[in-house]
Specification:
By secondary structure, the chain is mainly α. Helices cover 71% and strands 0% of the residues. The protein has helices at residues 20-41, 48-52, 57-99, 108-115, 117-135, 144-173. Helix 1 runs antiparallel to helix 3 (57-99) and helix 3 (57-99) packs antiparallel against helix 5 (117-135).
Length: 180
Amino acid sequence: MPTAHPNFSHQAQPTVRNGQRAAWILGLTSLTLLAALAAYLSPLQPDILALQFTFDQASFQAILEAWKPEGVLRYRSHLPIDYGLLLCYGAFGYVLASKTALFTKFSPLTERLLLWVMPLAALCDAVENSLHWRFTSGLQQADSALYLVAGTSAALKCALLGVFVVSVLVALARPAAARA
């Protein structure tokens, strides 16, 4: 009868999570893109946060009028790069939650939920960007309800980003042995 090799165990081994490198790359790429876009859009007054948090057509159009055609063109030209940003930060959050041990300090349910926070924020950002592309195209008027959808998407995106940042801070502050 063959004997088992002492280095082989039939017990399940804990999953090694080694996504730190990918998380760093995606995180730093996200921060770089965010900083570059913030600098590029900084001349716009009112700033883009004002545009993102409009929930009706009149408020949205008032900001576009304040920006004049040059500002609207600047805003529209940033949108393709913003899609790259949302892909990066969505992937960053997913990798950080699934390929590192950071969130293992939380309950398994919380850990699974945090896996989808940044991808969901990125999806909200994509909805917002797509609607803003349409609203700034000048081709046709959009249904007024879509402005509410865009503003709500932006608000939800920001809330989800906030949840993720707070979760990271809590996880970093929590002792390693704590598993709720």
